[in-house]
Design goal:
The chain is of the alpha/beta class. It has three domains: 142 residues, no CATH class; 136 residues, 3-Layer(aba) Sandwich (Rossmann fold); 187 residues, 2-Layer Sandwich (Dihydrodipicolinate Reductase, domain 2), CATH 3.30.360.10. It is built from 16 helices and 14 strands. It has a seven-stranded mixed β-sheet, with helices on both faces. Strands 9-10-8-11-14-13-12 form a seven-stranded mixed β-sheet. A hairpin with a 6-residue loop joins strand 13 and strand 14. It is globular, with a radius of gyration of 26 Å. It binds NADP nicotinamide-adenine-dinucleotide phosphate. NADP nicotinamide-adenine-dinucleotide phosphate binds next to helix 10, helix 12 and helix 16.
Length: 487
């Protein structure tokens, strides 16, 4: 997004272990023994590694002499064995640690190196480190030190409110997988779940009951505990200095609050924003499929019908669908408890209140939020939301009408194929299109059934499926936090 990265969220409190905060690499004269070692290693290889020389500033023009194989710490055989990611991580940790301890000018604790590697901040460098000559390897090693310093410096104290819910449970894994710089993670829920344990980075963390003073020292708070909790506690988190990323509907339509899908409208967020809203899950999934098509023509109208899964109504609704399904298969007629109607082997109109025009609240959210996200306050959009007996991942049948003639199916497919966060699943020959089972647990929104609307010359039709606990909620929230860190 073209913004220069800076330490986010007032992290001045975190003490940097190195004085290298704003530099990716230390200047060569500071490298001392590292430089000497690298140079002698490179000479042993009979060449100076291209990237090493560029780094030194000796010879910016490359003669392509990198990839000379390993010396010093690694031989070819060992490199060949280091194919799997886990092994590469461990090797990288050991390598960086050994090299820094022996040749580094900056001391670096093993856990700090480990943090840099585990957080993926030099994973892409690792292969090069192992394959290239010693000069390059040491350069990578010092780069790793600086990255470690950056990571440690940026590490944040993060809170998840609603950590035991269907959405909340996704956060620890997402933060870990995405290498989000978490210094400390605090998990909050209601009184019911206080004392439960959830796993983060292999450690069991106790869930605490959220209180007014829970946010002292917190830099970033994800809220997924319903609109009432967000209204009550988000201002307290803000007052304590935390950036709030809210999954509830509490602030979405507040014009002062950005409503953000990072792939679609990142520009609506600024570094000054302390409260950012995650849109409604059905709106996110719809717009992930539709927003990229704006480059093919002006959108005049959207018609969408949703097929919404149990997980969209929370952990209790998921349990109800499973319990009811078991009970029905055993010949019983279970009483609905969480949702208003029998759920197993049934479907029903979305379980939210209906307004005077006959639209339920979910439909109204999709309409209003789509208009806000696309900045099209008069967008013609009609929505029908239905709950279906699918455990996880929502599906949507979408018709997009353009102001002029519809773009070709090929143009739509080509556009969606390059849209970030979208995966095209559109195999007409084998009748394979997006399915909620395939969309469950993955980051991308699946889009397919790309076809002309034969009843309208300006319209095309799509079918989309997305994991609304991920892209529709927790993943989008983490992406917002990542975006905030880059502003
Ligand atoms: N599910 C989705 O697909 C989805 C998608 C987008 C947005 N959202 C939004 O995300 C939020 C959470 O939804 P969900 O589906 O994860 O619901 P859920 O499974 O019912 O989880 C609700 C969470 O809120 C906590 N909570 C309940 N009462 C509380 C209280 N008084 N104080 C503090 N925490 C309390 C619960 O803790 P206990 O375990 O203690 O009850 C639980 O952790 C909602 O605002 C929802 O609109 C959901």
């Amino acid at each position: 997004m073209g913004h220069k990265r800076r330490p986010p969220f007032g992290l001045e409190r975190s003490k940097p272990h190195f004085d290298l905060r704003h530099e990716r690499r230390p200047p060569p004269e500071e490298l001392g023994p590292v430089t000497a070692f690298a140079e002698s290693g490179a000479q042993r290889l009979g060449t100076l590694d291209e990237r090493y020389r560029t780094f030194r500033g000796d010879d910016p023009s490359s003669d392509g002499t990198s990839q000379k194989g390993c010396a010093g710490f690694h031989d070819h055989q060992r490199v060949g064995a280091l194919v799997d990611r886990q092994t590469r991580h461990h090797a990288a940790i050991q390598f960086a640690f050994d090299a820094c301890a022996t040749y580094g000018t900056h001391s670096c604790a093993r856990d700090e190196i480990e943090a840099a590697v585990t957080l993926n901040h030099f994973d892409s460098e690792v292969e090069g480190t192992l394959r290239n000559g010693v000069g390059h390897a040491i350069m990578q090693c010092t780069t790793a030190l600086v990255l470690a310093a950056e990571v440690i410096h940026r590490a944040m104290r993060v809170a998840v409110v609603g950590a035991t819910g269907a959405v909340g449970r996704e956060f620890p894994r997402l933060l870990e997988q995405r290498g989000f710089p978490v210094d400390e993670l605090r998990l909050f829920a209601g009184p019911r779940s206080a004392g439960c344990a959830l796993t983060f980075r292999g450690t069991q963390l106790l869930v605490e009951e959220v209180r007014a003073d829970s946010f002292q020292g917190i830099d970033l708070a994800f809220f997924s505990a319903g609109a009432a909790r967000s209204r009550a506690y988000a201002p307290m988190a803000n007052a304590a200095g935390a950036l709030v990323v809210d999954n509830s509907s509490a602030f979405r339509m507040d014009e002062r609050v950005p409503l953000v899908v990072p792939e679609i409208n990142p520009e609506t967020m600024t570094a000054a924003d302390r409260l950012v809203a995650v849109p409604n899950c059905s709106a996110i999934l719809l717009l992930m499929a539709v927003a990229p098509l704006r480059s093919l023509g002006s959108i005049a109208r959207i018609v969408v019908s949703t097929y919404q899964s149990a997980s969209g109504a929370g952990a209790a609704a998921m349990a109800e669908l499973m319990d009811q399904t078991r009970a029905v298969l055993e010949g019983a007629t279970p009483e609905p408890k969480v949702l208003p109607h029998p759920y197993a082997f049934n479907l029903f109109s979305h379980n939210t209140p209906i307004n005077e025009h006959g639209f339920n609240e979910e439909e109204s959210k999709v309409i209003e939020e789509s208009r806000k996200i696309l900045r099209m306050p008069n967008l013609a959009i009609n929505v029908t939301c239905v709950r279906v007996p699918v455990l996880r991942a929502h599906s949507e049948s979408i018709t997009v009408e353009f102001s002029g003639p519809a773009p070709s199916v090929e143009a739509v497919r080509a556009r969606l194929e390059v849209a970030p966060g979208v995966r095209v699943v559109d195999d007409r020959e084998r009748n394979i299109f997006p399915m909620p089972l395939d969309a469950s647990g993955i980051d991308e929104v699946l889009v397919g059934r790309i076809r002309r609307d034969m009843s309208h010359p300006s319209a095309i039709c799509l079918f989309a499926c997305g994991d609304q606990l991920l892209k529709g909620a927790a993943l989008n929230a983490v992406q917002i936090a990542e975006l905030a860190g880059s502003l």
